[in-house]
UniProtKB/TrEMBL annotation:
Every Pseudouridine synthase II N-terminal domain range: 25-177
Annotated organism of origin: Nonomuraea glycinis
One Gene Ontology term of the molecular function aspect: RNA binding
Pfam families to which the protein is assigned, alphabetical: TruB_C (PF09142), TruB_C_2 (PF16198), TruB_N (PF01509)
Enzyme Commission number(s) from the entry: 5.4.99.25
UniProt catalytic activity: uridine(55) in tRNA = pseudouridine(55) in tRNA
EC category: isomerase
Protein's UniProt name: tRNA pseudouridine synthase B
Cross-referenced InterPro entries: PsdUridine_synth_cat_dom_sf (IPR020103), PsdUridine_synth_N (IPR002501), PUA-like_sf (IPR015947), PUA_sf (IPR036974), tRNA_psdUridine_synth_fam2_C (IPR015225), tRNA_psdUridine_synth_TruB (IPR014780), TruB_C (IPR032819)
Keyword check for Oxidoreductase: no
GO BP annotations, alphabetical order: mRNA pseudouridine synthesis; tRNA pseudouridine synthesis
The family this protein is said to belong to: Belongs to the pseudouridine synthase TruB family. Type 1 subfamily.
Length: 290
């Protein structure tokens, strides 16, 4: 059986997240492989992949904070809010000043309501929004709360009628960076879209821990599941007696470690479960021992 753990991939451009999973199934020698948080084909950077038992972690890891490097072009609007779509409108951004761009970025920082792109994986009446949009339907998606912790401009380049803005973004799960580009351009009255995106971090896993596909072809480096949980979530070490309770499906009293998943480890350092404290008890989210 393949080792259970995470593979931190530096996804190349033009690959879908599914392409990466398919390749890693061959490298790891197992079908039980999945990913946490889709990256669009044009995007590069950190994609967290789970192998064997670690696939149970992916839904929880997908909810963690993320960070990106992005380039946004002002003056051109597309139907996908990124460079892969068709141009739907153009307006001169030549007179857009750096000060106005910074004001626009400031308005999109903090807790905001964001309408996801029409071409997204969100389900509408049981169907993916992107399928409906590509079939010619006008998809109306509801605005959702997201948190933009930081939205920092690193460069502004005027290039004729368009302006390219390089930025770093640190945000909550569920944020669409191409929607930020769209809304920045809309707020400035000239439209905008995303032209480049690189995810630099998912939770505690950043590019320094990521391997390229070529590197993984030579050596499929798997971060053991216990190390992966200890890096991503608070840790609780329990006694032999408590470990027996967990192994038999029982619940332990809460330890006051706060909201969110907690890794529960036995006295020998073995990962036993991922739990969440609810009231006075620690409720299992995923159990890794039988």
């Amino acid at each position: 059986m393949a080792e259970s753990g995470l593979i931190i991939v530096d996804k190349p451009a033009e690959w879908t997240s599914h392409d990466v999973v398919a390749k890693l199934r061959r490298f790891a020698g197992t079908r039980r492989v999945g990913h946490a948080g889709t990256l669009d084909p044009m995007a590069t950077g950190v994609l967290v992949v789970g192998v064997e038992k670690a696939t149970r972690l992916l839904g929880h890891l997908a909810l963690t904070e993320k960070a990106y490097d992005a380039t946004m072009r002002l003056g051109v609007t597309t139907n996908t809010d990124d460079a892969e779509g068709q141009v739907t409108a153009q307006a001169s951004a030549a007179d857009v000043t750096a000060e106005r761009v910074r004001d626009g970025v400031a308005a999109l920082t903090g807790e905001i309501m964001q309408i996801p792109p029409q071409v997204s994986a969100i389900k509408v009446d049981g169907q993916r929004a992107y399928k409906l949009a590509r079939a010619g339907e006008n998809v109306e998606l509801a605005a959702r709360p997201v948190t933009i912790h930081t939205f920092e401009i690193t460069d502004i380049r005027h290039q004729g009628e368009v302006v390219d803005v390089d930025a770093t973004v640190r945000c909550s799960s569920g944020t669409y960076i191409r929607a930020l580009a769209r809304d920045l351009g809309a707020g400035l009255g000239v439209g905008g879209h995303l032209t480049a995106l690189r995810r630099t971090r998912v939770g505690p896993y950043d590019l320094s821990k990521a391997s390229t596909i070529d590197q993984l072809a030579e050596r499929c480096a798997v971060l053991p599941i216990g190390e992966a949980v200890a890096a991503a979530f608070p840790r609780r070490d329990i006694s032999d007696e408590e470990a027996r309770v967990v192994r038999h499906g029982g619940r332990l009293p809460a330890a006051g470690l706060g909201k969110g998943p907690i890794g529960m480890f036995g006295p020998d350092g073995e990962l036993l479960a991922l739990v969440e404290e609810q009231g006075r008890l620690a409720k299992p989210l995923a159990v890794f021992v039988s």
